[in-house]
Amino acid sequence: MDPASPNPSPGITKTYTNGEITVVWKPAACIHSKLCWTQLFRVFNPKARPWVNMAGAGSDRIAEQVDRCPSKALTYYQNAEFLQPKTI
Questions:
Q1: Residue 85 lies in a domain
Q2: Least reliable range by pLDDT among 9-13, 18-22, 64-68, 82-86
Q3: Cα–Cα distance between 72 and 77 in angstroms, integer?
């Protein structure tokens, strides 16, 4: 990233995991709506490093908050090792 530019490089992607789900953050896509950290500060704290604390809430709550990201700069996926086949 060019230090004179306030915007991150388009190719930067950061991932954060708790073992069950992985949150993906694309900083260049972020529109700074503040929904993530104003609604789930225990997980999304812009002053902390790293700014995403996956231990701050359960996976369902984190996924619910990530789904509210209007720019989709935050997304998530389920980690395969936690997907259990249904018993019939």
A1: no
A2: 82-86
A3: 13
Instruction: Give the per-residue pLDDT at 85.
Output: 64
Residues ≥6 apart with Cβ < 8 Å to 81: 19
Query: In the chain, how many domains are there?
Result: 1
DSSP string, 21-43: EEEEE-GGG-----HHHHH-TTT
∠32-34-36 over CA atoms, to 5°? 115
Residues contacting 7, CB < 8 A, separation 6+ = 28
Which CATH number does the domain housing residue 73 bear? 3.30.70
